[in-house]
Amino acid sequence: MITELSILIPCYNSVCLDTVKRLQQLCERVAYDAPDGFSYEIIVADDASTDILSLEQNQAISLLRNCTFLRKEQNTGSAATRNYLADHSRYPWLLFLDSDMQIPGMDFIIRYLPYDQYDVVNGGIAVGGSPNPSNLRYLYEKHSEPRHTIDHCNAHPYQQFRSTNFLISRACFTHCRFDERFTHSGYEDVHFGKQLCETRATIMYIHNPLILCTFESNDDYIIKCERNLQTLHRFRDELSNYSPLLTLVRHLSLVAPLVRYMHRLLGPMERRHLTSSHPTLPLFHLYRLGYYLSLRS
Q1: Which of 82, 151, 193, 297 has the fewest CB atoms inside 10 Å of its own CB, making it the most exposed?
Q2: Which residue, 35, 24, 29, 26, is CA-closest to 1?
Q3: What is the CATH number of the domain that holds 123?
């Protein structure tokens, strides 16, 4: 049973005061009921946000019991920020959570505590909010849910790893830190899953999701996806067996020149459609493939 826990939250231009208050409430409840005691800390690290209002509101985190708000002076990306959080924590178990998620129920913390026999425990995410067929991120996440079931993830634990919501022992994290070459968000968790595989870390996926309810605009999501594809292209050799897109590219090597040519012709029109109020997933997958293949080596 886990009795000492550091909850670590990287953030950038987002207010997470309410999330921290919620987590503190849940931890206090566990501590009150735990017969052998329960110690915790909650640390939020801001990755040099540019939004002054969010910074001002997040300062109040440090006024809460067992909670700390740290502000980095230089933006270094989520991979480095997670390592930074681990370096500033003190307990033997680390729970990494993304800042833009909602925490369901009253048993979110306590569900993690019995799994101290594993190196890593991943609680996953669930898509919440009202159905929104005009939002590309919502459509993509909803369509991807069948690929992230507990059974499927436990059958392919290293390939399915996502860093949104996971518990890891400090001993394991010492050997598997996030690679700080990933200076932008995107695929750093895929690379982390590869490291977990190489060190033979034990992983368990459980049903303890954070809820994704906030979806960026279609314009912002396309920009984010393009940036992520640039990262994937840079690290394509290292991630070759861990990305479905790279597997598809390998299988389509003979027709890659045709796909690149079609993307040069139709890519701008596809992008306009994807950023409209009527995006479609098949076109999104085609755009991602064409965009990736059009990147220069």
Answers
A1: 297
A2: 35
A3: 3.90.550.10
